[in-house]
Amino acid sequence: MKAVFKTDRGRIRQHNEDNGGIFLNRSGQRLAIVADGMGGHRAGDVASEMALSNLQKLWIETEEIKTADEAEEWLKINVEKGNTALYEHAKSTTECEGMGTTLVAAICTNHFVSIANIGDSRCYILNENGFQQLTEDHSLVNELIRSGQISKEDAEHHPMKNVVLRALGTEMTVNMDVKTIIFEDEDLLLLCSDGLSNKVQEIEMIEILKSNQSLEEKASTLIELANNNGGEDNITIIIVEYLNSDNGDCV
Fold this sequence. Notes:
The protein has a single domain (2-241), classed as PPM-type phosphatase domain (Phosphatase 2c, domain 1, 4-Layer Sandwich). It is built from 7 helices and 11 strands. Strands 2, 3, 4, 5, 6 and 9 form a 6-stranded antiparallel sheet that branches. Strands 1-11-10-7-8 form a 5-stranded antiparallel sheet. With 251 residues, it is an alpha+beta fold. Its cofactor is Mn(2+). It is an enzyme of class 3 (hydrolase).
């Protein structure tokens, strides 16, 4: 596999409260993470950085993940540990009160990808069946869409578009979605913060991901497009490409 990570402050925000990265465990498997922090006085970057570093530390000490059940259990246990750490830090540190972060994390193996998400950072897959959003946004507008109160078109300009219903670190316990998919030759996985998904339409994502550019160029093109469309938010992207099942894990 190949993978690329990129993050950008955008054109409006003074600070980048997004964090992310791709990390190796002891057997060379990858954990890809995107976290979009929230909170005043720069507490957002504290939250996303803590979420990232906590999972990174746990992952690099992890032995080989052999089954989807093992991967999903790892995500459930360790994301919950990260939630506890953030929640306790926010309670004990005045300037971090109320801080939190979205999280989308994917364990990449030769045979499958297991994904956990909280909030509205997303994971998509591009494969022979087309382009699909694998995660469900935990947001107010998504609940309004699901209940039939507004359309997807209405949601794009809704005044409460940025209201997230679930976040890491804001409550004593966290409710996350976890799922596993088969990952095969030539499949592409895209993880991103809403700084991308709010500014780049799916048809544009597909066109760029299917282009002949390198992974690095694809990520840069997606960020450039989000900035050209306003760039009001931080933008973070991870692209993972499955090249050949005989080539080992993510590179």
